[in-house]
């Protein structure tokens, strides 16, 4: 996430005592989730592309699922709209951008991902939804040709009522639309001239952080890899301050929610949209 050391990770709320997991019975969404029956995440796909706004967005839970996928032999790559250059208050953007990009590569490697790409036309904190963003994401979907696309919620609030940051909303919505754009040769037709033929075979889109999850993955066995992936963001984590929970404490709160315990000790629960 971005926020100059003041950002609060997905699914969490800041209290005077620090950051705590959202109460499952209060705020937006959790009460519904607690009564919802989730389906097991499908396995009939081979290639995934994860699209987010900033370095570390995937490490707040999704990376534990990624570790499970790569261990099973699936191919997973990352696309980030920015390099998170506005995310560390004490570090100028020109220094933070390469540092955070490398931390993202290091975190990805912890969960078996060796391809991390970045869009070059967008700036951290001021990403806007629109045709340039859709085009950039659609072009990359055509380039890597995934079966599954993973992104973050574009809702205004996360479960528990915490406000969703503007870049997350823009990138999440643009990713949904780009999946359709990628398959239509008459949308961004110039991409064909760049050697990027349409790709209309995105079968699923998974939305992390949704207030209406539909599926789950028990990530208990890959939880430690998810922790290592978040720990790789050393400079960003240090910028959050000493009163902020450690990566292990934070991911225990995010993935160990009591209302999801029937699905496993540690659970990743996205909303899944089937496109075929």
Question: What's the topology here?
Answer:
Elements: E1 12-15, E2 18-21, H1 30-34, E3 39-40, E4 47-52, H2 62-71, E5 75-80, H3 93-110, E6 116-118, H4 131-144, E7 148-152, H5 166-181, H6 190-193, E8 204-208, E9 215-218, H7 223-231, H8 234-239, H9 247-255, E10 267-268, E11 271-274
Main sheet overview: 6 strands, mixed
| Spans where pLDDT lies below 50 across 5 or more residues | 3-34
- Sheet/helix structural class: alpha/beta
Q: Termini distance?
A: 32 Å
The largest sheet has its strands arranged as 6-5-4-7-8-11
Molecular shape: globular
In N-to-C order, the SSE pattern is: EEHEEHEHEHEHHEEHHHEE
**Number of distinct beta strands:** 11
Number of helices: 9
Helical fraction equals 25-40%
What Rg is obtained from the alpha carbons, in whole angstroms? 17 Å
